[in-house]
Recover the amino acids of this structure.
Protein backbone atom coordinates (compact mmCIF):
# COMPACT_ATOMS: atom_id res chain seq x y z
CA UNK A 1 0.00 0.00 0.00
CA UNK A 2 1.29 3.44 -0.97
CA UNK A 3 0.39 6.56 1.02
CA UNK A 4 1.29 10.17 0.29
CA UNK A 5 1.99 12.35 3.32
CA UNK A 6 0.96 15.89 2.35
CA UNK A 7 2.77 18.20 4.77
CA UNK A 8 1.56 21.75 4.06
CA UNK A 9 1.47 25.21 5.48
CA UNK A 10 -2.02 26.68 5.65
CA UNK A 11 -4.08 29.81 6.19
CA UNK A 12 -6.31 29.93 9.23
CA UNK A 13 -9.90 30.71 8.33
CA UNK A 14 -9.21 30.75 4.55
CA UNK A 15 -11.21 27.83 3.20
CA UNK A 16 -10.84 28.77 -0.46
CA UNK A 17 -7.05 28.77 -0.27
CA UNK A 18 -6.77 25.58 1.76
CA UNK A 19 -9.34 23.74 -0.34
CA UNK A 20 -7.60 24.59 -3.60
CA UNK A 21 -4.28 23.30 -2.29
CA UNK A 22 -6.03 20.10 -1.18
CA UNK A 23 -7.60 19.60 -4.60
CA UNK A 24 -4.28 20.31 -6.33
CA UNK A 25 -2.50 17.71 -4.18
CA UNK A 26 -5.11 15.10 -5.01
CA UNK A 27 -5.02 15.89 -8.74
CA UNK A 28 -1.21 15.63 -8.91
CA UNK A 29 -0.65 12.54 -6.74
CA UNK A 30 1.42 9.67 -8.08
CA UNK A 31 -0.36 7.23 -10.34
CA UNK A 32 0.15 4.34 -7.89
CA UNK A 33 -0.88 6.23 -4.73
CA UNK A 34 -3.68 4.62 -2.74
CA UNK A 35 -4.21 7.25 -0.03
CA UNK A 36 -3.33 10.89 0.68
CA UNK A 37 -3.21 12.17 4.27
CA UNK A 38 -3.48 15.87 5.16
CA UNK A 39 -2.88 17.84 8.39
CA UNK A 40 -5.47 18.63 11.06
CA UNK A 41 -8.43 20.85 10.00
CA UNK A 42 -6.84 21.08 6.56
CA UNK A 43 -9.80 22.77 4.89
CA UNK A 44 -10.34 25.68 7.31
CA UNK A 45 -7.14 25.82 9.31
CA UNK A 46 -7.46 26.77 12.97
CA UNK A 47 -10.31 29.25 12.82
CA UNK A 48 -10.64 31.79 15.61
CA UNK A 49 -13.76 32.11 17.75
CA UNK A 50 -14.93 34.89 15.44
CA UNK A 51 -14.17 32.94 12.25
CA UNK A 52 -15.52 29.56 13.29
CA UNK A 53 -19.26 30.24 12.82
CA UNK A 54 -18.47 31.74 9.40
CA UNK A 55 -16.26 28.98 7.98
CA UNK A 56 -17.48 25.75 9.61
CA UNK A 57 -19.41 23.49 7.24
CA UNK A 58 -21.61 20.41 7.62
CA UNK A 59 -20.42 17.08 6.25
CA UNK A 60 -22.63 17.58 3.19
CA UNK A 61 -21.21 21.07 2.59
CA UNK A 62 -19.47 22.34 -0.54
CA UNK A 63 -15.85 21.84 0.52
CA UNK A 64 -16.16 18.15 1.31
CA UNK A 65 -18.26 17.70 -1.82
CA UNK A 66 -15.38 19.12 -3.85
CA UNK A 67 -12.90 16.78 -2.15
CA UNK A 68 -15.17 13.82 -2.84
CA UNK A 69 -15.33 14.71 -6.53
CA UNK A 70 -11.55 15.04 -6.72
CA UNK A 71 -11.00 11.71 -4.97
CA UNK A 72 -13.48 9.97 -7.24
CA UNK A 73 -11.98 11.43 -10.42
CA UNK A 74 -8.44 10.47 -9.37
CA UNK A 75 -9.41 7.00 -8.10
CA UNK A 76 -7.68 7.40 -4.72
CA UNK A 77 -8.67 7.93 -1.10
CA UNK A 78 -7.88 10.83 1.23
CA UNK A 79 -7.93 11.64 4.94
CA UNK A 80 -8.88 15.28 5.33
CA UNK A 81 -10.10 17.39 8.23
CA UNK A 82 -12.40 20.34 8.70
CA UNK A 83 -14.24 22.45 11.21
CA UNK A 84 -17.59 20.66 11.18
CA UNK A 85 -20.90 22.37 11.85
CA UNK A 86 -23.62 20.08 13.21
CA UNK A 87 -26.65 22.16 14.14
CA UNK A 88 -25.47 24.71 16.68
CA UNK A 89 -22.36 22.69 17.59
CA UNK A 90 -18.87 22.59 16.10
CA UNK A 91 -16.47 19.64 15.93
CA UNK A 92 -12.83 19.14 14.90
CA UNK A 93 -13.43 16.32 12.45
CA UNK A 94 -11.36 14.07 10.19
CA UNK A 95 -12.76 11.85 7.47
CA UNK A 96 -11.60 8.98 5.30
CA UNK A 97 -12.99 9.69 1.85
CA UNK A 98 -12.88 7.03 -0.85
CA UNK A 99 -14.21 6.90 -4.40
CA UNK A 100 -17.49 5.62 -2.93
CA UNK A 101 -17.88 8.58 -0.56
CA UNK A 102 -17.28 9.14 3.17
CA UNK A 103 -16.06 5.82 4.57
CA UNK A 104 -15.23 6.95 8.10
CA UNK A 105 -15.87 10.01 10.27
CA UNK A 106 -14.07 10.85 13.51
CA UNK A 107 -14.69 13.80 15.81
CA UNK A 108 -11.68 14.65 17.98
CA UNK A 109 -12.37 13.27 21.45
CA UNK A 110 -9.60 15.04 23.38
CA UNK A 111 -9.43 18.76 22.72
CA UNK A 112 -6.33 20.91 23.13
CA UNK A 113 -6.86 23.62 25.78
CA UNK A 114 -7.35 26.40 23.22
CA UNK A 115 -10.08 24.38 21.45
CA UNK A 116 -12.23 23.92 24.53
CA UNK A 117 -15.25 26.15 24.37
CA UNK A 118 -15.00 26.32 20.56
CA UNK A 119 -15.44 22.65 19.65
CA UNK A 120 -17.39 19.90 21.33
CA UNK A 121 -15.52 16.64 21.96
CA UNK A 122 -16.53 13.56 20.03
CA UNK A 123 -18.22 10.69 21.84
CA UNK A 124 -16.81 7.63 20.06
CA UNK A 125 -13.90 5.94 18.33
CA UNK A 126 -14.35 4.31 14.95
CA UNK A 127 -12.60 2.03 12.49
CA UNK A 128 -13.52 0.65 9.08
CA UNK A 129 -12.15 -1.82 6.58
CA UNK A 130 -10.40 -0.42 3.52
CA UNK A 131 -8.22 -2.32 1.05
CA UNK A 132 -8.02 -5.28 3.42
CA UNK A 133 -6.90 -3.24 6.44
CA UNK A 134 -8.83 -1.99 9.43
CA UNK A 135 -8.21 1.75 9.57
CA UNK A 136 -8.82 4.20 12.42
CA UNK A 137 -8.45 7.97 12.75
CA UNK A 138 -7.12 10.20 15.53
CA UNK A 139 -6.39 13.92 15.66
CA UNK A 140 -3.31 15.64 17.13
CA UNK A 141 -3.55 15.76 20.96
CA UNK A 142 -5.40 12.42 20.92
CA UNK A 143 -2.11 10.56 20.48
CA UNK A 144 -0.69 11.89 23.74
CA UNK A 145 -3.22 9.81 25.68
CA UNK A 146 -2.54 6.11 25.07
CA UNK A 147 -6.14 5.05 25.72
CA UNK A 148 -7.23 6.60 22.42
CA UNK A 149 -5.00 4.40 20.29
CA UNK A 150 -5.80 1.40 22.47
CA UNK A 151 -9.49 2.04 21.82
CA UNK A 152 -8.77 1.71 18.10
CA UNK A 153 -6.75 -1.44 18.78
CA UNK A 154 -9.70 -2.84 20.71
CA UNK A 155 -11.64 -2.29 17.48
CA UNK A 156 -9.03 -4.28 15.56
CA UNK A 157 -7.03 -1.48 13.98
CA UNK A 158 -4.11 -2.20 11.60
CA UNK A 159 -3.41 1.39 10.52
CA UNK A 160 -3.75 4.45 12.77
CA UNK A 161 -3.94 7.69 10.79
CA UNK A 162 -3.28 10.91 12.68
CA UNK A 163 -4.15 14.33 11.28
CA UNK A 164 -1.79 16.57 13.20
CA UNK A 165 -1.53 20.28 13.99
CA UNK A 166 1.34 20.20 16.45
CA UNK A 167 3.30 23.36 17.11
CA UNK A 168 6.58 24.39 18.73
CA UNK A 169 7.82 23.59 21.30
CA UNK A 170 5.91 20.27 21.35
CA UNK A 171 7.24 18.60 18.20
CA UNK A 172 9.38 16.05 20.10
CA UNK A 173 6.34 15.06 22.18
CA UNK A 174 4.43 13.81 19.15
CA UNK A 175 7.48 12.10 17.66
CA UNK A 176 7.80 10.04 20.84
CA UNK A 177 4.06 9.49 21.12
CA UNK A 178 3.51 8.21 17.58
CA UNK A 179 6.29 5.64 17.95
CA UNK A 180 4.86 4.44 21.24
CA UNK A 181 1.28 4.24 19.93
CA UNK A 182 2.40 2.12 16.97
CA UNK A 183 4.58 -0.21 19.05
CA UNK A 184 2.20 -0.77 21.94
CA UNK A 185 -0.70 -1.56 19.59
CA UNK A 186 1.38 -3.44 16.99
CA UNK A 187 -0.08 -1.36 14.18
CA UNK A 188 1.17 1.02 11.51
CA UNK A 189 0.85 4.71 12.36
CA UNK A 190 0.86 7.57 9.87
CA UNK A 191 1.02 11.13 11.20
CA UNK A 192 0.82 14.22 8.97
CA UNK A 193 1.51 17.64 10.48
CA UNK A 194 1.30 21.22 9.32
CA UNK A 195 4.31 23.53 8.88
CA UNK A 196 4.91 27.26 8.78
CA UNK A 197 3.30 30.03 10.76
CA UNK A 198 -0.27 30.27 11.95
CA UNK A 199 -2.36 32.92 13.61
CA UNK A 200 -1.44 33.98 17.12
CA UNK A 201 2.30 33.52 16.58
CA UNK A 202 2.11 29.70 16.31
CA UNK A 203 4.86 27.89 14.41
CA UNK A 204 3.98 24.36 13.34
CA UNK A 205 6.60 21.69 13.83
CA UNK A 206 6.26 19.40 10.79
CA UNK A 207 7.82 16.00 11.38
CA UNK A 208 5.19 13.98 9.53
CA UNK A 209 6.02 10.31 9.82
CA UNK A 210 5.33 6.68 9.07
CA UNK A 211 6.00 4.25 11.92
CA UNK A 212 5.87 0.47 11.56
CA UNK A 213 4.19 -1.97 14.01
CA UNK A 214 7.49 -2.41 15.87
CA UNK A 215 7.59 1.32 16.64
CA UNK A 216 10.37 2.02 14.13
CA UNK A 217 10.32 5.25 12.13
CA UNK A 218 10.22 4.36 8.43
CA UNK A 219 10.04 7.96 7.23
CA UNK A 220 10.20 11.33 8.94
CA UNK A 221 9.76 14.74 7.29
CA UNK A 222 11.51 17.93 8.25
CA UNK A 223 9.99 21.35 8.94
CA UNK A 224 9.30 22.51 5.37
CA UNK A 225 6.32 21.80 3.11
CA UNK A 226 6.71 18.47 1.37
CA UNK A 227 4.86 15.50 -0.02
CA UNK A 228 6.31 12.04 0.39
CA UNK A 229 5.02 8.71 -0.84
CA UNK A 230 5.66 5.89 1.62
CA UNK A 231 5.02 2.17 1.26
CA UNK A 232 3.50 -0.04 3.95
CA UNK A 233 5.05 -3.50 4.12
CA UNK A 234 1.92 -5.28 5.30
CA UNK A 235 3.91 -8.39 6.24
CA UNK A 236 5.14 -6.39 9.23
CA UNK A 237 1.72 -6.68 10.89
CA UNK A 238 1.91 -10.47 11.17
CA UNK A 239 5.58 -10.36 12.16
CA UNK A 240 4.94 -7.89 14.98
CA UNK A 241 2.14 -10.04 16.38
CA UNK A 242 3.70 -13.45 15.77
CA UNK A 243 5.45 -14.13 19.09
CA UNK A 244 3.19 -12.10 21.36
CA UNK A 245 -0.02 -10.17 20.83
CA UNK A 246 -0.56 -7.27 23.22
CA UNK A 247 -4.26 -7.08 22.48
CA UNK A 248 -4.81 -10.72 23.37
CA UNK A 249 -2.48 -10.66 26.38
CA UNK A 250 -3.93 -7.56 28.09
CA UNK A 251 -5.95 -8.04 31.25
CA UNK A 252 -7.59 -4.62 31.34
CA UNK A 253 -10.25 -3.79 28.76
CA UNK A 254 -11.49 -0.31 27.99
CA UNK A 255 -15.15 0.24 28.89
CA UNK A 256 -17.76 1.33 26.37
CA UNK A 257 -20.31 -0.14 24.02
CA UNK A 258 -19.01 -1.66 20.78
CA UNK A 259 -21.28 -1.24 17.77
CA UNK A 260 -20.81 -3.26 14.56
CA UNK A 261 -22.25 -1.81 11.36
CA UNK A 262 -23.16 -3.69 8.20
CA UNK A 263 -20.79 -1.54 6.13
CA UNK A 264 -17.75 -2.75 8.09
CA UNK A 265 -17.49 0.12 10.56
CA UNK A 266 -16.91 -0.60 14.22
CA UNK A 267 -17.49 2.01 16.91
CA UNK A 268 -16.61 2.16 20.58
CA UNK A 269 -18.93 4.56 22.38
CA UNK A 270 -17.36 6.46 25.27
CA UNK A 271 -19.41 5.78 28.43
Amino acid sequence: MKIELIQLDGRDGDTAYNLQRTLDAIATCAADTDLLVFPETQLMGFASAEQLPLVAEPLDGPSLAAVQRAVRERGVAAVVGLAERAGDRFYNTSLLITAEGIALTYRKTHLWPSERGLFQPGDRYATTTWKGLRVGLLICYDIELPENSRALAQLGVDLIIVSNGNMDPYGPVHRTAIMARAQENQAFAVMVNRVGEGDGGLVFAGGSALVDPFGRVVFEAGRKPCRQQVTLDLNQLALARRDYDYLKDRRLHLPGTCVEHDDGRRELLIP
Remarks:
- The domain at 2-235+256-269 is CATH 3.60.110.10 (Nitrilase/N-carbamoyl-D-aminoacid amidohydrolase).
